Amino acid sequence: MSTRAFTIHVPGKPVAQPRQRMSARGGIARSYLPNKHPIHAFKAAVRLAAKGCPVFEKDVPLRVIIVLHFAMPTTWSKRKREQNRGKGNTQKPDFDNLAKAVCDALADHYHDDAQICKAIIEKYWDDENGTAIKVEEINE
Asked: Per-residue pLDDT tens for 7-48?
């Protein structure tokens, strides 16, 4: 039994999905995200990296694996950088908001977010920023 899948790498700093902002005009409330927010560029980079990847059919259960690499601050000493390279990043942004941004950007590759039955999200310190993403059918 073959499993359809794709793996992509997105260079650049991962950006978490922010909360919507609210405003009111004429007594009507609306929610929005500012046009200059970096989430738009991050999602565009994910979509570009996934261009040409397969589209999964409706009701197919999916597994998503997201590995996020965050560049260590340049203010850290060489010793601290060596100690933390490859270790888990416990600082913000939260993993769930990062995963939301990635899954929203990949919405053209599956019918609904509800198809994602299993997700593995990992955050690490590294020398460079980047995001590795794998989406695959679950045939268990």
From this structure: 999 999 999 998 888 888 888 888 878 889 999 999 999 999
Q: Counting beta carbons within 10 angstroms of the beta carbon of residue 22, is it exposed (0 to 12), middle (13 to 18) or buried (19 or more)?
A: exposed
- Domain 5-137 classification at class level: alpha beta
| pLDDT tens-digit map of 104-123 | 999 999 998 899 999 999 99
In the numeric block, the tokens 């197919």 are attached to 60
Torsion sign, CA atoms 54, 59, 61, 63: positive
Phi-psi region of 107 (alpha: psi -120 to 50; beta: other; left: phi over 0): alpha
Separation CA 93–CA 120 (nearest Å): 16
pTM above 0.85, yes or no: yes
Q: Is the dihedral of CA 136, 98, 87, 84 positive or negative?
A: positive
Pick the closest to residue 55 from 15, 96, 115, 140 (CA basis).
115
Q: Where are the domains of the chain?
A: 5-137
